[in-house]
Fold this protein.
Amino acid sequence: MSFNLEGITEVALGIGLKLILLFIAYAIINPIGRKIISKILHSSTNKKKISEARVLTLEKLLINIYSYILIFIFITMIFGVFELEIGPLIASAGVVGLAIGFGAQGLVSDVVTGFFILLEKQIEVGEYVTTAGYDGIVEELGLRTTQIRSFDGTLNFIPNRHLEGISNHSRGTMRALVDIGISYNDNIDHAMQVLQHVCEAFSTDERFVDGPQVIGVQSLGSSDVVLRIIGQTQNMEQWQCERDMRKAIKEAFDQNGIEIPFPQQVTHIVKEEA
Amino acid sequence: MSFNLEGITEVALGIGLKLILLFIAYAIINPIGRKIISKILHSSTNKKKISEARVLTLEKLLINIYSYILIFIFITMIFGVFELEIGPLIASAGVVGLAIGFGAQGLVSDVVTGFFILLEKQIEVGEYVTTAGYDGIVEELGLRTTQIRSFDGTLNFIPNRHLEGISNHSRGTMRALVDIGISYNDNIDHAMQVLQHVCEAFSTDERFVDGPQVIGVQSLGSSDVVLRIIGQTQNMEQWQCERDMRKAIKEAFDQNGIEIPFPQQVTHIVKEEA
Amino acid sequence: MSFNLEGITEVALGIGLKLILLFIAYAIINPIGRKIISKILHSSTNKKKISEARVLTLEKLLINIYSYILIFIFITMIFGVFELEIGPLIASAGVVGLAIGFGAQGLVSDVVTGFFILLEKQIEVGEYVTTAGYDGIVEELGLRTTQIRSFDGTLNFIPNRHLEGISNHSRGTMRALVDIGISYNDNIDHAMQVLQHVCEAFSTDERFVDGPQVIGVQSLGSSDVVLRIIGQTQNMEQWQCERDMRKAIKEAFDQNGIEIPFPQQVTHIVKEEA
Amino acid sequence: MSFNLEGITEVALGIGLKLILLFIAYAIINPIGRKIISKILHSSTNKKKISEARVLTLEKLLINIYSYILIFIFITMIFGVFELEIGPLIASAGVVGLAIGFGAQGLVSDVVTGFFILLEKQIEVGEYVTTAGYDGIVEELGLRTTQIRSFDGTLNFIPNRHLEGISNHSRGTMRALVDIGISYNDNIDHAMQVLQHVCEAFSTDERFVDGPQVIGVQSLGSSDVVLRIIGQTQNMEQWQCERDMRKAIKEAFDQNGIEIPFPQQVTHIVKEEA
Amino acid sequence: MSFNLEGITEVALGIGLKLILLFIAYAIINPIGRKIISKILHSSTNKKKISEARVLTLEKLLINIYSYILIFIFITMIFGVFELEIGPLIASAGVVGLAIGFGAQGLVSDVVTGFFILLEKQIEVGEYVTTAGYDGIVEELGLRTTQIRSFDGTLNFIPNRHLEGISNHSRGTMRALVDIGISYNDNIDHAMQVLQHVCEAFSTDERFVDGPQVIGVQSLGSSDVVLRIIGQTQNMEQWQCERDMRKAIKEAFDQNGIEIPFPQQVTHIVKEEA
Amino acid sequence: MSFNLEGITEVALGIGLKLILLFIAYAIINPIGRKIISKILHSSTNKKKISEARVLTLEKLLINIYSYILIFIFITMIFGVFELEIGPLIASAGVVGLAIGFGAQGLVSDVVTGFFILLEKQIEVGEYVTTAGYDGIVEELGLRTTQIRSFDGTLNFIPNRHLEGISNHSRGTMRALVDIGISYNDNIDHAMQVLQHVCEAFSTDERFVDGPQVIGVQSLGSSDVVLRIIGQTQNMEQWQCERDMRKAIKEAFDQNGIEIPFPQQVTHIVKEEA
Amino acid sequence: MSFNLEGITEVALGIGLKLILLFIAYAIINPIGRKIISKILHSSTNKKKISEARVLTLEKLLINIYSYILIFIFITMIFGVFELEIGPLIASAGVVGLAIGFGAQGLVSDVVTGFFILLEKQIEVGEYVTTAGYDGIVEELGLRTTQIRSFDGTLNFIPNRHLEGISNHSRGTMRALVDIGISYNDNIDHAMQVLQHVCEAFSTDERFVDGPQVIGVQSLGSSDVVLRIIGQTQNMEQWQCERDMRKAIKEAFDQNGIEIPFPQQVTHIVKEEA
């Protein structure tokens, strides 16, 4: 039995040695990893002028994920040190991992996408965006879910992985565009002059960044000649500008006797007996 | 044979030792895991003011899942201790796990999504929501299935994984929007004054949070000039408000001789012989 | 050769011992698993008041699946005990499992979904449901396939995995909704009074759970003012109620001289020469 | 070298023993499996009254699959017995299996789906079905492909995996439905009486299982009041019944002076100068 | 060192023995497999009367695939015999196999589908088919790609895996269908007699397999009563038959004073002042 | 320590031997593989008359891929020879391989598809094709990307994996098709004679491969009888031919007094009081 | 215990030796890999004349990826050298890798696609492109995300993996296309002469690369004969050119008395009594 005792002692020593090595490795790797995460995040966000608060949020998230993974590896390795037949653990982990991998891939996708949306500042709270078929003001930006308030008051919860392609309408000046149809009988030059007068009146409007202008005959429609006016306005002012321009154009046309024609049709009448 | 006996004794001792270690590990890990789940859940839900009842539901669910996984690992490890050729078990588990992983991934997705819908309070029973092509009042919120009662009385059962993007119409004031067309012959200013009078009458209506207002010429249509009125109402009152406003506007227009025009067309008649 | 004999005897003993252990394990695990399944199923279905017959069906299914899996594991473990190079078995099982996993995932999905539809009582035989693009009366509920009889007599076989979102029209009162257009020249109040009279006549109809009511001006259409009537009827009576109400409204309008207008158009005639 | 010889002899003996065990195992498992397949198939099909010929087809298929799998396992295990480094075989099998698994998953899906379509008798040769966007008479039912003959003469080959949801129009009586519009000036009661007379004439027609009936005012359309007639006919007779009823209704309306109105429009004429 | 030499000799002998066994196994399995393939293919194609040329093509393909796989397994096993650490090979093969498995799954799918299209004779060169959104004459049938010539002259290359559901228009008689609208004022019986006369004239046309017949009132349209004529023609003659019938019907109607009506509308004129 | 030294020497010798074997294997396999690739490619392309330049491109690509794989295997096997715990390498490779496998599968698909498009000569630079929703002239054919120049001048870059189904409009004669509507009052035979005259004039046009012909009454439309003319033209000349034929037909009809009718409608006038 | 000491010493020596070998391998492989990357990138980009700045960006990216992978392999191999039960690490890595592999595959796809878009110069900052349903000027090109500014001012963030097929409108001359309808009564030759005059006036316009030309009768429409004019303009000038041409054509037609007709209809009047 002496041989066994020796063997056991030896094994115990080996286990102890390995455990100590593991703890040392953990104690070394843990803070190093945290510092690397911190450093990379700060250096990469500094260039993009992201607010300190947001950086802290991202940092906290990354360090949390890092810690969970490290602890998970550490625990499974301790199991291994005791030689407790790691095989079944692999089997279990494999099956469970497969189920989770399939079921939770949406969750991982949400967080990965959310992380980059935050990092790349694609949207901010309060901005007007269109994405994933939703349209409205961003109300909350989460790592998993983004909340967008539609203009009709609805609050939309959208998992971030569905934010494939974000149209942000709050980044710079917006275009005000008015298409206006005149009669085929009206003189195009005259109508364009009248419209240009209206445009000039609006060009002093401070909402316009780049004064509206008549750009020409957009189409020769079935009932009217369509003229187009384009201008650049301050953000979110484009709709009210368009409304005001439509009203002004209608009134200018009334004064100048230019007709906005109804749909036209030529009917060839053939009289028949009942 | 003495050597064999010794060997067997030794092996038996090893098995016993390992079993004891396993049970101790189980006895330690089990309550710790439960406490960690409890603590994380409570601390993360406290911030969001989720009702105690819902937290208990989530806690129960998480601890159940945790227990099943732990027991599964524990059982497979006991198999391992007896050295009962764990290989075939891995093979079996792999094949079965693959089949289950593919077939039941929907189930896991349902629960994962359901968990976050509950945790993030995206919808509550009794709220009016639009999601996954369904539209109605939430009647029951489950971890796997959500039940939505359509306004026509239909009860819809929707697996949670299909709730990709939830539009919740019961979170805050709603918009009442009325578009009204006036004749091209009518004076826009006059019509807007009449509409503004109607709006002012409604602004004292307690259903309106933000009194309705005429915002301008929404479009120069083919037959009419479209004016838009927008107001903010209490939740779920928007439709009745819109109906009442439409009636009031129609009556005000009748009194003021403003026409809501029918579709217009200009017909050029050419007489031909039969 | 004595050493070999001994070794073989020893090995044979080991095999025998392992086989006995395996059979004991099987004998213990088998009934325990069955009882757990039974117990869980009964306790979870008791709460939901599912008929005894259905519970037995589910129980039989679950115990069958459980038995097949257990036997499969048991057989592969016996192979392992004889040390018959379990490697190739793993390889074979892997390849076959992969093929089956991909090809039969639909089958597993069907059964998983079917199980929950039965368990959660989402549909019952005889109910009128809309799901997966099919619409009709449920004729048979299977674990793999659901049969729905369309109103035109067609029998639809639908694999359960396609039942993503089930609209059950047989759970509670249904809405009867009639939209009726009146002329822009008619007095809205008068028309609403006439309609209200019709509604009051129907409110004594026992098919109506909640008497129909005029709720107001639903829209100012291009040719008519649309009024909406809503009522709650007994299940499956909503269509006949709507038909009867339409007839009654038409007759009431005829008596009161209120017009249901044809499409309107204003035509500006310009005579031209041929 | 004597030691080696002994070792080799020993190994050879072991190999022989294992081979014998393998062959015995094969000889036992093979017929048992076949019998189990036979028994399960017969017992499960007996309940469903499936023709003997079809059962034999299914049985042959299942036993073929079973045999191929068994032989594959057997061969790989023999490789294993000779200790011919089974590792590379696993590697090869894995790579090839992966490629096949991905590429041929459609094939497996086809067979699995085809098997259940045969077993559950969802369609029979000669039935009129709609599935996978195809519409016609089933001409051949295969395990991999189903052939459907469209009414225009086209022969469609459809892989079974695309038969997701089968609408079988040859299982029971079919509905004959005729919607007929009458003028807003006509008396609804009168028109319904005339239609009821037509229906009564058809109720003696042996093609009708459940005599056609006028069920009421289906809609108040833009130009007409739509009445609906519904009846149950023998399978595949519904179209001719509908055609005959349309002709009879048209003639009855002509006799009774009831008009089937053309599209109506009210035109407000405003004369303008050219 | 003598022990080492012995060991090496022994190992060398083992390797030699294994190599010989491998070569023998290869020499046995290779021709057996080829014969099995040949036999299965011939027996399964004999029943279907597939031309000898096509069977040879399929046989060549299958034996090629079989040979490549066998050689691949053989080479990896030789590596294994030399005990050249087969682990890394597995790793490499796994990674490469994964990449190929994903990237080339389309290729495998193409060949698998192509194989069955050839084997089941779903299409032949020269047939008129509709599949995968393409419509035309099959010009070439490959294992990977099928070429279809559209009627406008375009040559379409379609990977076989997209041929999900093939509509073959060259298998049997085709339907000629003509819908013809008559006036609501015309007598239905009279019109049907005239049409029947036209049909009888065509029934002697040798292009018609089953003489065209008037089957009744297909619909009561908004402007006309639609009558339907159906006949069975020889393959690919259906269009010209329909064209000829349309011309004959138009001329017969002109002779019998039956009108094919233009779209009808009832206009209620209300005169208004400009 | 002498035993150790021996062991180490022995091991070193073993390693050396294995390395030499590896290098020899590499030196043998490398050129053989290259020659096989070359030979297969040349023999398979010779039959298809592919230009020498293109064959060289394909050959270079295939030999590059082959070399990278071989070197990768070789390096990992050297690692294995040194017994440097190949396990972690497998683990790393597995994780990285998984990530790459998923992320880069598009890349592999692109190259595989591109390879076959080149090999099968589905498209050539300068041809007019429709594929993946794009329409235009092929400007560059790459292994990963194909460039197509739309007729409006846009240059489209399309990853090859999206080229599922290629419609090549530059392979053979194209169809010129003109549908022309005549009045219901015109004589069909007369109109067809006039059209036939036009066709005969064009049949001498060298752009026509198969002279245009009147094929009959394509449809009895709501306002006109539609006649169809079909001809075969040289590639890319079909549009101009159609334009020229339309002009000629219009002029021939004018000369012969045949009318191309406007949309027709019968209006039943009912006068009402305002 | 002396034996143990020796063993430990021996093991320690082995570990040391392996570590040294590892570091040497790392020191050799690292710079070689970097150089290979550099060289391949430069040689492959040189041919395509990509700016030095962009090559540096790509090089930096590739070397970063390479370094991370190398360090990851290196660390896991060091773990292996200490024989710290690498099994659990594999298990952990497998599970985590699976989750990441699924969740982050989008990320890898983005980078791979982004890399090739940069390398192949498919788009440049400032170009006008249509891709993934977005349309506008490229504002920023990232490895993960591309920013496109729509013409209405919206800034769109699009993950690169969605850039499947890029339509680049800034590569070469663009087509200006004007379709113009003339009356059926007008002489086609006369109208084409007038249009040709307009075209000739524009052919001296420097915006036109290839002077506009009348190409013929595009269609015989329901109300007009449509003539088509096509020209090639400088990039981005096509819209303004089209607008100017429309204006000029309208004025030329007015001068020459050619009518752009309104929609035409023939109405057969039948008077009925109210």
